[in-house]
Amino acid sequence: MKFRSCISASLFALSAQAAFAQPVSLREAVTLALAHDPTIEKAQAGVERSKAGIDAARAGRGPTLGLMAQAGVLDTDFTSDKITQTPRQAGLQAEWTVFQSGALGAAVDAAKAQNDAAAYQLLGTRERTVYDTFEAYAQAWLAERTVEVAQARKETFAIRLNETRARFDQGQVTRTDVALTEARLASAEAELEAAHASQAGTKARLSRLTGVEDISTVEAAALDTAVSGTLPESLVRVLDSNPDLAAARAAEMSAGHKVREAKGRFGPKVSVKARATTGEEMYFFFEDPISDVGAFVTVEVPLVTSGLRGASTREARAAQDAALADVRLAELQLHEAVTGLWGDIDARRLALAAAQRAETAAQLAAEGAQKEHEAGIRTLVDALDAENAYRDAQIARYRAATQLQIAEARLLSLSSDLERHLRQ
Protein backbone atom coordinates (compact mmCIF):
# COMPACT_ATOMS: atom_id res chain seq x y z
CA MET A 1 0.00 0.00 0.00
CA LYS A 2 1.27 3.43 -0.88
CA PHE A 3 2.35 5.91 1.79
CA ARG A 4 -0.31 8.50 0.90
CA SER A 5 -3.11 5.92 0.94
CA CYS A 6 -2.13 4.93 4.50
CA ILE A 7 -2.46 8.53 5.64
CA SER A 8 -5.79 9.07 3.86
CA ALA A 9 -7.36 5.94 5.28
CA SER A 10 -6.31 6.69 8.84
CA LEU A 11 -7.46 10.30 8.67
CA PHE A 12 -10.86 9.25 7.28
CA ALA A 13 -11.34 6.75 10.09
CA LEU A 14 -10.47 9.32 12.72
CA SER A 15 -12.77 11.92 11.13
CA ALA A 16 -15.65 9.45 11.36
CA GLN A 17 -14.98 9.00 15.08
CA ALA A 18 -14.82 12.77 15.65
CA ALA A 19 -18.21 13.25 14.00
CA PHE A 20 -19.92 12.12 17.19
CA ALA A 21 -18.61 15.18 19.05
CA GLN A 22 -20.46 18.48 18.83
CA PRO A 23 -18.56 20.70 16.35
CA VAL A 24 -18.38 24.42 17.05
CA SER A 25 -16.77 27.15 14.97
CA LEU A 26 -14.42 29.70 16.50
CA ARG A 27 -16.98 32.52 16.30
CA GLU A 28 -19.64 30.30 17.84
CA ALA A 29 -17.27 29.37 20.66
CA VAL A 30 -16.53 33.03 21.37
CA THR A 31 -20.23 33.92 21.36
CA LEU A 32 -21.00 31.04 23.74
CA ALA A 33 -18.15 32.01 26.07
CA LEU A 34 -19.25 35.65 26.25
CA ALA A 35 -22.72 34.52 27.27
CA HIS A 36 -21.46 31.86 29.68
CA ASP A 37 -18.58 33.49 31.56
CA PRO A 38 -19.68 34.58 35.08
CA THR A 39 -16.83 37.09 35.32
CA ILE A 40 -18.57 39.15 32.64
CA GLU A 41 -21.77 39.13 34.70
CA LYS A 42 -19.74 40.27 37.68
CA ALA A 43 -18.19 43.11 35.66
CA GLN A 44 -21.64 44.13 34.38
CA ALA A 45 -22.87 44.22 37.97
CA GLY A 46 -19.93 46.50 38.76
CA VAL A 47 -21.05 48.89 36.01
CA GLU A 48 -24.60 48.95 37.39
CA ARG A 49 -23.27 49.54 40.89
CA SER A 50 -21.17 52.47 39.68
CA LYS A 51 -24.21 53.96 37.91
CA ALA A 52 -26.10 53.77 41.19
CA GLY A 53 -23.14 55.56 42.78
CA ILE A 54 -23.55 58.43 40.32
CA ASP A 55 -27.25 58.70 41.16
CA ALA A 56 -26.43 58.66 44.87
CA ALA A 57 -23.82 61.41 44.46
CA ARG A 58 -26.23 63.54 42.44
CA ALA A 59 -28.93 63.02 45.05
CA GLY A 60 -26.62 64.63 47.59
CA ARG A 61 -26.95 67.91 45.68
CA GLY A 62 -30.75 67.91 45.69
CA PRO A 63 -33.31 68.70 48.38
CA THR A 64 -34.71 66.18 50.82
CA LEU A 65 -38.29 66.17 52.06
CA GLY A 66 -39.71 64.15 54.91
CA LEU A 67 -42.53 63.78 57.39
CA MET A 68 -42.06 64.33 61.10
CA ALA A 69 -44.27 63.51 64.07
CA GLN A 70 -43.77 63.95 67.79
CA ALA A 71 -45.78 63.02 70.89
CA GLY A 72 -44.80 63.03 74.53
CA VAL A 73 -45.47 64.12 78.10
CA LEU A 74 -44.38 67.46 79.52
CA ASP A 75 -44.53 68.53 83.18
CA THR A 76 -44.37 72.27 83.82
CA ASP A 77 -43.91 73.49 87.43
CA PHE A 78 -44.98 77.09 88.11
CA THR A 79 -44.70 79.02 91.36
CA SER A 80 -48.31 78.41 92.29
CA ASP A 81 -49.21 75.43 90.19
CA LYS A 82 -47.99 72.40 88.22
CA ILE A 83 -49.31 71.42 84.78
CA THR A 84 -48.92 68.13 82.93
CA GLN A 85 -49.58 68.13 79.20
CA THR A 86 -49.19 65.74 76.28
CA PRO A 87 -47.89 67.81 73.34
CA ARG A 88 -48.43 66.41 69.86
CA GLN A 89 -46.93 67.68 66.64
CA ALA A 90 -46.77 66.60 62.99
CA GLY A 91 -45.55 68.27 59.84
CA LEU A 92 -43.27 68.41 56.82
CA GLN A 93 -39.63 69.46 56.76
CA ALA A 94 -37.24 69.95 53.83
CA GLU A 95 -33.53 70.61 53.57
CA TRP A 96 -31.32 71.56 50.63
CA THR A 97 -27.56 71.84 50.84
CA VAL A 98 -26.76 74.75 48.53
CA PHE A 99 -22.99 74.88 49.04
CA GLN A 100 -20.45 72.59 50.68
CA SER A 101 -17.06 73.88 49.53
CA GLY A 102 -17.08 71.80 46.33
CA ALA A 103 -17.58 68.46 48.07
CA LEU A 104 -20.89 67.73 46.34
CA GLY A 105 -19.57 68.38 42.83
CA ALA A 106 -16.40 66.41 43.57
CA ALA A 107 -18.48 63.44 44.73
CA VAL A 108 -20.38 63.43 41.43
CA ASP A 109 -17.16 63.70 39.41
CA ALA A 110 -15.59 60.87 41.42
CA ALA A 111 -18.63 58.66 40.83
CA LYS A 112 -18.56 59.38 37.08
CA ALA A 113 -14.87 58.50 36.87
CA GLN A 114 -15.53 55.32 38.81
CA ASN A 115 -18.29 54.45 36.35
CA ASP A 116 -15.80 54.93 33.49
CA ALA A 117 -13.38 52.61 35.27
CA ALA A 118 -16.08 49.97 35.68
CA ALA A 119 -17.00 50.23 31.98
CA TYR A 120 -13.36 49.76 30.99
CA GLN A 121 -13.08 46.82 33.36
CA LEU A 122 -16.07 45.22 31.66
CA LEU A 123 -14.42 45.70 28.28
CA GLY A 124 -11.18 44.22 29.58
CA THR A 125 -13.04 41.25 31.01
CA ARG A 126 -14.71 40.60 27.66
CA GLU A 127 -11.38 40.78 25.86
CA ARG A 128 -9.80 38.33 28.31
CA THR A 129 -12.71 35.95 27.81
CA VAL A 130 -12.37 36.21 24.04
CA TYR A 131 -8.64 35.61 24.21
CA ASP A 132 -8.98 32.68 26.62
CA THR A 133 -11.56 31.13 24.31
CA PHE A 134 -9.38 31.73 21.26
CA GLU A 135 -6.41 30.11 23.00
CA ALA A 136 -8.48 27.18 24.26
CA TYR A 137 -10.02 26.66 20.82
CA ALA A 138 -6.58 26.76 19.19
CA GLN A 139 -5.17 24.29 21.70
CA ALA A 140 -8.18 21.99 21.24
CA TRP A 141 -7.74 22.12 17.46
CA LEU A 142 -4.03 21.33 17.86
CA ALA A 143 -4.85 18.42 20.18
CA GLU A 144 -7.30 17.04 17.62
CA ARG A 145 -4.69 17.27 14.87
CA THR A 146 -2.14 15.63 17.16
CA VAL A 147 -4.54 12.74 17.72
CA GLU A 148 -5.05 12.45 13.98
CA VAL A 149 -1.33 12.31 13.32
CA ALA A 150 -0.79 9.85 16.17
CA GLN A 151 -3.63 7.69 14.83
CA ALA A 152 -2.14 7.79 11.35
CA ARG A 153 1.26 6.87 12.76
CA LYS A 154 -0.22 3.91 14.59
CA GLU A 155 -2.13 2.68 11.54
CA THR A 156 0.93 3.06 9.35
CA PHE A 157 3.00 0.93 11.70
CA ALA A 158 0.19 -1.64 11.87
CA ILE A 159 0.27 -1.89 8.10
CA ARG A 160 4.04 -2.10 8.12
CA LEU A 161 3.89 -4.86 10.73
CA ASN A 162 1.60 -6.93 8.52
CA GLU A 163 3.91 -6.38 5.57
CA THR A 164 6.98 -7.27 7.62
CA ARG A 165 5.43 -10.46 8.94
CA ALA A 166 4.47 -11.46 5.37
CA ARG A 167 8.02 -10.82 4.19
CA PHE A 168 9.39 -12.73 7.17
CA ASP A 169 7.26 -15.71 6.18
CA GLN A 170 8.78 -15.42 2.71
CA GLY A 171 12.30 -15.18 4.16
CA GLN A 172 12.89 -11.64 2.89
CA VAL A 173 13.47 -10.07 6.35
CA THR A 174 14.68 -11.29 9.71
CA ARG A 175 12.88 -11.71 13.03
CA THR A 176 14.72 -8.63 14.22
CA ASP A 177 12.84 -6.57 11.63
CA VAL A 178 9.55 -7.96 12.93
CA ALA A 179 10.47 -7.17 16.53
CA LEU A 180 11.58 -3.67 15.56
CA THR A 181 8.29 -2.97 13.80
CA GLU A 182 6.33 -4.32 16.78
CA ALA A 183 8.28 -2.00 19.07
CA ARG A 184 7.56 0.97 16.82
CA LEU A 185 3.87 0.08 16.81
CA ALA A 186 3.77 -0.16 20.61
CA SER A 187 5.46 3.23 20.85
CA ALA A 188 2.93 4.72 18.42
CA GLU A 189 0.06 3.29 20.49
CA ALA A 190 1.50 4.90 23.64
CA GLU A 191 1.83 8.25 21.85
CA LEU A 192 -1.78 7.97 20.68
CA GLU A 193 -3.02 7.44 24.23
CA ALA A 194 -0.97 10.42 25.40
CA ALA A 195 -2.50 12.50 22.61
CA HIS A 196 -5.99 11.42 23.69
CA ALA A 197 -5.21 12.46 27.28
CA SER A 198 -4.01 15.88 26.10
CA GLN A 199 -7.09 16.25 23.94
CA ALA A 200 -9.34 15.50 26.91
CA GLY A 201 -7.67 18.30 28.87
CA THR A 202 -8.04 20.88 26.10
CA LYS A 203 -11.64 19.83 25.48
CA ALA A 204 -12.44 20.18 29.19
CA ARG A 205 -11.08 23.73 29.22
CA LEU A 206 -12.99 24.72 26.09
CA SER A 207 -16.15 23.17 27.54
CA ARG A 208 -15.70 25.14 30.76
CA LEU A 209 -15.38 28.39 28.82
CA THR A 210 -18.29 27.79 26.45
CA GLY A 211 -20.59 25.64 28.57
CA VAL A 212 -20.83 23.04 25.77
CA GLU A 213 -20.11 19.43 26.67
CA ASP A 214 -18.27 17.10 24.32
CA ILE A 215 -17.20 20.03 22.18
CA SER A 216 -14.98 19.76 19.13
CA THR A 217 -13.52 22.22 16.62
CA VAL A 218 -14.31 22.56 12.95
CA GLU A 219 -11.56 24.94 11.87
CA ALA A 220 -8.16 26.24 12.79
CA ALA A 221 -8.13 29.22 15.14
CA ALA A 222 -7.03 31.90 12.72
CA LEU A 223 -7.35 35.68 12.45
CA ASP A 224 -8.65 37.34 9.29
CA THR A 225 -5.56 39.52 9.00
CA ALA A 226 -2.09 39.17 10.45
CA VAL A 227 -0.70 41.72 12.88
CA SER A 228 0.98 44.50 10.92
CA GLY A 229 2.77 47.78 11.52
CA THR A 230 5.81 48.47 13.64
CA LEU A 231 6.62 47.99 17.30
CA PRO A 232 6.30 51.72 18.19
CA GLU A 233 2.93 51.90 16.39
CA SER A 234 1.69 48.82 18.19
CA LEU A 235 2.89 50.16 21.53
CA VAL A 236 1.09 53.48 21.00
CA ARG A 237 -2.11 51.70 19.99
CA VAL A 238 -2.02 49.47 23.06
CA LEU A 239 -1.30 52.33 25.47
CA ASP A 240 -4.18 54.30 23.96
CA SER A 241 -6.72 51.46 23.83
CA ASN A 242 -5.90 48.96 26.55
CA PRO A 243 -8.99 48.71 28.80
CA ASP A 244 -7.07 47.79 31.95
CA LEU A 245 -4.85 50.86 31.60
CA ALA A 246 -7.87 53.03 30.83
CA ALA A 247 -9.60 51.66 33.93
CA ALA A 248 -6.54 52.46 36.04
CA ARG A 249 -6.45 56.01 34.68
CA ALA A 250 -10.15 56.49 35.38
CA ALA A 251 -9.65 55.15 38.92
CA GLU A 252 -6.80 57.64 39.40
CA MET A 253 -9.08 60.49 38.27
CA SER A 254 -11.76 59.29 40.68
CA ALA A 255 -9.22 59.26 43.50
CA GLY A 256 -8.26 62.86 42.67
CA HIS A 257 -11.87 63.98 42.89
CA LYS A 258 -12.20 62.20 46.22
CA VAL A 259 -9.33 64.31 47.57
CA ARG A 260 -11.34 67.43 46.71
CA GLU A 261 -14.41 65.83 48.25
CA ALA A 262 -12.56 65.07 51.49
CA LYS A 263 -11.40 68.67 51.77
CA GLY A 264 -14.83 70.08 50.98
CA ARG A 265 -16.64 67.94 53.55
CA PHE A 266 -15.03 69.99 56.33
CA GLY A 267 -15.34 73.41 54.70
CA PRO A 268 -18.11 76.02 55.05
CA LYS A 269 -21.60 74.69 54.34
CA VAL A 270 -24.73 76.60 53.41
CA SER A 271 -28.13 74.93 53.49
CA VAL A 272 -31.75 75.99 53.24
CA LYS A 273 -34.34 74.45 55.54
CA ALA A 274 -38.13 74.76 55.52
CA ARG A 275 -40.70 73.46 57.96
CA ALA A 276 -44.49 73.34 58.26
CA THR A 277 -46.00 71.79 61.41
CA THR A 278 -49.24 71.59 63.30
CA GLY A 279 -49.84 70.31 66.80
CA GLU A 280 -51.28 70.89 70.22
CA GLU A 281 -49.09 72.56 72.82
CA MET A 282 -49.36 74.81 75.87
CA TYR A 283 -50.25 78.38 74.99
CA PHE A 284 -50.72 80.81 77.89
CA PHE A 285 -51.30 77.93 80.29
CA PHE A 286 -53.94 76.34 78.06
CA GLU A 287 -53.58 73.53 75.55
CA ASP A 288 -54.28 74.98 72.13
CA PRO A 289 -53.70 73.92 68.52
CA ILE A 290 -50.64 75.67 67.13
CA SER A 291 -49.37 75.67 63.52
CA ASP A 292 -46.21 77.22 62.14
CA VAL A 293 -44.49 77.61 58.78
CA GLY A 294 -40.90 78.74 58.47
CA ALA A 295 -37.80 78.82 56.27
CA PHE A 296 -34.21 79.19 57.40
CA VAL A 297 -30.75 79.65 55.88
CA THR A 298 -28.09 77.83 57.85
CA VAL A 299 -24.35 78.51 57.61
CA GLU A 300 -21.98 76.02 59.22
CA VAL A 301 -18.22 76.51 59.52
CA PRO A 302 -16.36 73.66 61.28
CA LEU A 303 -13.64 75.01 63.54
CA VAL A 304 -12.36 71.97 65.39
CA THR A 305 -12.69 68.42 64.00
CA SER A 306 -10.24 66.68 66.36
CA GLY A 307 -7.98 65.79 63.42
CA LEU A 308 -10.74 64.19 61.33
CA ARG A 309 -10.32 66.63 58.44
CA GLY A 310 -6.57 66.08 58.17
CA ALA A 311 -6.91 62.32 58.50
CA SER A 312 -9.60 62.14 55.81
CA THR A 313 -7.52 64.25 53.44
CA ARG A 314 -4.38 62.17 53.99
CA GLU A 315 -6.35 58.98 53.44
CA ALA A 316 -7.74 60.31 50.14
CA ARG A 317 -4.29 61.45 48.98
CA ALA A 318 -2.79 58.08 49.83
CA ALA A 319 -5.50 56.41 47.73
CA GLN A 320 -4.68 58.80 44.89
CA ASP A 321 -0.97 57.94 45.13
CA ALA A 322 -1.82 54.23 45.04
CA ALA A 323 -4.04 54.75 41.99
CA LEU A 324 -1.28 56.69 40.25
CA ALA A 325 1.15 53.86 40.99
CA ASP A 326 -1.35 51.41 39.47
CA VAL A 327 -1.37 53.48 36.28
CA ARG A 328 2.41 53.50 36.12
CA LEU A 329 2.57 49.76 36.81
CA ALA A 330 0.02 49.02 34.08
CA GLU A 331 2.02 51.10 31.59
CA LEU A 332 5.25 49.26 32.43
CA GLN A 333 3.59 45.85 32.19
CA LEU A 334 2.01 46.69 28.84
CA HIS A 335 5.32 48.00 27.49
CA GLU A 336 6.98 44.75 28.50
CA ALA A 337 4.15 42.61 27.11
CA VAL A 338 4.01 44.37 23.74
CA THR A 339 7.78 44.33 23.29
CA GLY A 340 7.96 40.66 24.20
CA LEU A 341 5.02 39.70 21.99
CA TRP A 342 6.38 41.62 19.02
CA GLY A 343 9.66 39.75 19.16
CA ASP A 344 7.82 36.50 19.82
CA ILE A 345 5.58 36.97 16.77
CA ASP A 346 8.56 37.63 14.50
CA ALA A 347 10.29 34.51 15.81
CA ARG A 348 7.17 32.37 15.43
CA ARG A 349 6.63 33.52 11.86
CA LEU A 350 10.14 32.37 11.02
CA ALA A 351 9.55 29.13 12.93
CA LEU A 352 6.34 28.46 10.98
CA ALA A 353 8.05 29.06 7.64
CA ALA A 354 10.84 26.69 8.66
CA ALA A 355 8.32 24.09 9.88
CA GLN A 356 6.46 24.24 6.58
CA ARG A 357 9.66 23.67 4.64
CA ALA A 358 10.65 20.86 6.98
CA GLU A 359 7.27 19.16 6.60
CA THR A 360 7.47 19.27 2.81
CA ALA A 361 10.99 17.88 2.84
CA ALA A 362 10.10 15.18 5.38
CA GLN A 363 7.09 14.10 3.33
CA LEU A 364 9.19 13.74 0.19
CA ALA A 365 11.86 11.90 2.15
CA ALA A 366 9.33 9.50 3.67
CA GLU A 367 7.76 8.70 0.31
CA GLY A 368 11.18 8.25 -1.27
CA ALA A 369 12.43 6.05 1.56
CA GLN A 370 9.38 3.81 1.26
CA LYS A 371 9.84 3.40 -2.49
CA GLU A 372 13.55 2.72 -2.06
CA HIS A 373 12.78 0.17 0.65
CA GLU A 374 10.37 -1.60 -1.67
CA ALA A 375 13.08 -1.58 -4.32
CA GLY A 376 15.57 -3.04 -1.86
CA ILE A 377 17.81 0.02 -1.75
CA ARG A 378 16.97 1.04 1.84
CA THR A 379 16.27 -1.00 4.93
CA LEU A 380 12.98 -1.17 6.78
CA VAL A 381 14.56 0.83 9.62
CA ASP A 382 15.32 3.66 7.22
CA ALA A 383 11.73 3.69 5.96
CA LEU A 384 10.25 3.68 9.47
CA ASP A 385 12.59 6.46 10.61
CA ALA A 386 11.62 8.57 7.61
CA GLU A 387 7.93 8.06 8.36
CA ASN A 388 8.48 9.04 11.99
CA ALA A 389 10.32 12.17 10.88
CA TYR A 390 7.39 13.12 8.64
CA ARG A 391 4.88 12.70 11.46
CA ASP A 392 7.06 14.79 13.76
CA ALA A 393 7.30 17.48 11.08
CA GLN A 394 3.52 17.52 10.75
CA ILE A 395 3.07 18.09 14.48
CA ALA A 396 5.79 20.75 14.48
CA ARG A 397 4.03 22.66 11.71
CA TYR A 398 0.66 22.43 13.44
CA ARG A 399 2.20 23.61 16.70
CA ALA A 400 4.10 26.48 15.08
CA ALA A 401 0.96 27.73 13.32
CA THR A 402 -1.10 27.51 16.51
CA GLN A 403 1.48 29.31 18.64
CA LEU A 404 1.77 32.11 16.08
CA GLN A 405 -1.99 32.64 16.04
CA ILE A 406 -2.16 32.67 19.84
CA ALA A 407 0.64 35.25 20.07
CA GLU A 408 -1.05 37.52 17.50
CA ALA A 409 -4.38 37.15 19.27
CA ARG A 410 -2.76 38.13 22.56
CA LEU A 411 -1.34 41.30 21.01
CA LEU A 412 -4.72 42.22 19.54
CA SER A 413 -6.45 41.61 22.87
CA LEU A 414 -4.13 44.12 24.57
CA SER A 415 -5.58 46.88 22.39
CA SER A 416 -9.19 45.61 22.61
CA ASP A 417 -9.15 44.59 18.94
CA LEU A 418 -9.48 40.81 19.21
CA GLU A 419 -13.26 40.61 19.62
CA ARG A 420 -13.74 43.05 16.75
CA HIS A 421 -11.43 41.02 14.49
CA LEU A 422 -13.25 37.78 15.26
CA ARG A 423 -16.68 39.30 14.61
CA GLN A 424 -15.78 40.80 11.23
Protein described:
With 424 residues, the chain is an alpha+beta fold. 69% of the residues lie in helices and 15% in strands. The protein contains 10 helices and 8 strands. The radius of gyration is 38 Å and the shape is elongated. The relative contact order is 0.14. Mean pLDDT is 86; it is low at 1-20.
Strand order of the largest sheet: 2-5-7-8
Mean pLDDT: 86
Shape: elongated
According to DSSP, the number of beta strands is 8
* SS-derived structural category: alpha+beta
Low-confidence runs of at least 5 consecutive residues: 1-20
- Following the backbone from N to C, one meets helices and strands in this order, namely HEHHEEEEHHEHHEEHHH
The description of the largest β-sheet is: 4 strands, antiparallel
What fraction of the residues are assigned to beta strands by DSSP? Answer: 15-25%
State the end-to-end CA separation: 45 Å
Q: What proportion of the residues is helical, as a percent range?
A: 55-70%
Radius of gyration: 38 Å
Structure at a glance:
The protein has 424 residues and is α+β, with helices and mostly antiparallel strands.
Layout of secondary structure:
Elements: H1 3-18, E1 22-24, H2 26-36, H3 38-59, E2 64-71, E3 74-77, E4 82-85, E5 88-99, H4 103-169, H5 175-210, E6 215-217, H6 231-241, H7 243-264, E7 269-283, E8 286-300, H8 308-374, H9 380-414, H10 418-423
Parallel strand pairs: 1-6
Antiparallel strand pairs: 2-5, 3-4, 5-7, 7-8
Index terms:
424 residues, alpha+beta, two-stranded parallel ribbon, 69% helix, 15% strand, disordered N terminus
